[in-house]
C-alpha cells in the first residue's frame, strides 16, 4: 500500500471517528466546515484525496488538528511524554513555574499541568469558556485559590475542583514552596 493510500484510509477512518464522537451528521459537518456533503462522503469512503485546505476545514469544524486526522495509528493510542518534551509556560526568578505535562482532545481539550509557586507569589487567570472545569491536587505546601474574590485554602494532600469560567487566582501565602498538579478540561465548542 502506498503512503498516499495509507493517508487516504487514515483520513477516512479518523473523519468518521471524530464526526461520530462529536455527534455530527454529514449535513452538520458540511455546514460547519464548508465542505460539501458529497465530498465528505467520498472522504469517509476513502475514494478521494482532498487538498490540505479541505482537510484543515474539516479539522477546524471537528476541533482536531490535521495531524490527528491524518494519524496512521490504529488501536489504543498511548503517548508517553518524556521530561524534555514538557512545555514550561512561564516562570519567575524566585522559582515559580507552570509546565504543561500532557494534553489530549477527548472529547474536548484536556490538559495536565505541574505547578510550583514560591512563597508570596501568585498568578491570575482570566475566565475560561463556560463549562471549563479545573481539578488541582496539592502535593506540597498550601494553595490559596481565589475564585470570584473568595479564598479557598487547599493544603498538601487535598484536592479541589471548580468551574473555571470565572476569574481565578492561584497563590501561595505560606512560607514554603507550593506544588500542585492541575488538570483543565475545556468543553468542545459546538
Textual characterization of the structure:
By secondary structure, this protein is an alpha+beta fold. Helix content is about 25%, strand content about 35%. It has helices spanning about 5-20, 25-35, 35-45, 50-60, 65-70, and strands at about 85-90, 95-105, 110-115, 120-125, 135-140, 140-145, 150-155, 160-165, 170, 180-185. The chain has a six-stranded antiparallel beta sheet, with no helix packed on it. A four-stranded antiparallel beta sheet has the order 4-9-6-7, with no helix packed on it. The longest helix has 20 residues, at about 5-20. The mean pLDDT is about 85.
Over all CA atoms, what is the radius of gyration?
A: 21 Å
Q: How many strands, which pairing sense, and closed or not: the largest β-sheet?
A: 6 strands, antiparallel
Oligomeric state of the chains present here = single chain
> What structural class do you assign from the helix and strand content?
alpha+beta
How many runs of DSSP E, i.e. beta strands?
Answer: 10
Distance between the termini: 36 Å
Whole-number average pLDDT? Answer: 86
Protein topology:
Blueprint: H1 3-22, H2 26-33, H3 37-44, H4 52-62, H5 66-69, E1 87-91, E2 97-105, E3 109-117, E4 122-125, E5 133-140, E6 142-147, E7 150-155, E8 159-163, E9 168-171, E10 178-185
Antiparallel strand pairs: 1-2, 2-3, 3-10, 4-9, 5-8, 5-10, 6-7, 6-9
Helix pairs in contact: 2-4
Give a quick summary of the entry:
By secondary structure, this protein is an alpha+beta fold. Helix content is 27%, strand content 34%. The protein has helices at 3-22, 26-33, 37-44, 52-62, 66-69, and strands at residues 87-91, 97-105, 109-117, 122-125, 133-140, 142-147, 150-155, 159-163, 168-171, 178-185.
Amino acid at each position: 500500500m502506498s503512503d498516499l493510500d495509507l493517508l487516504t484510509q487514515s483520513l477516512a477512518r479518523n473523519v468518521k471517528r471524530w464526526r461520530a464522537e462529536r455527534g455530527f451528521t454529514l449535513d452538520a459537518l458540511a455546514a460547519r466546515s464548508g465542505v460539501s456533503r458529497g465530498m465528505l462522503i467520498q472522504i469517509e469512503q476513502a475514494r478521494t484525496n482532498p487538498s490540505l485546505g479541505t482537510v484543515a476545514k474539516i479539522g477546524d469544524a471537528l476541533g482536531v488538528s490535521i495531524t490527528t486526522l491524518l494519524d496512521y495509528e490504529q488501536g489504543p493510542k498511548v503517548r508517553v511524554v518524556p521530561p524534555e518534551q514538557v512545555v514550561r509556560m512561564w516562570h519567575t526568578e524566585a522559582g515559580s513555574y507552570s509546565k504543561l505535562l500532557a494534553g489530549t482532545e477527548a472529547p474536548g481539550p484536556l490538559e495536565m499541568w505541574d505547578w510550583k509557586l514560591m512563597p508570596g507569589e501568585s498568578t491570575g487567570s482570566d475566565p475560561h469558556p463556560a463549562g471549563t472545569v479545573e481539578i488541582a491536587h496539592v502535593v506540597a505546601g498550601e494553595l490559596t485559590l481565589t475564585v470570584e474574590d473568595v479564598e479557598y485554602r487547599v493544603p498538601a494532600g487535598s484536592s479541589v475542583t471548580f468551574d473555571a469560567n470565572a476569574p481565578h487566582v492561584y497563590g501561595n501565602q505560606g512560607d514554603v514552596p507550593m506544588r500542585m498538579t492541575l488538570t483543565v478540561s475545556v468543553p468542545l465548542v459546538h
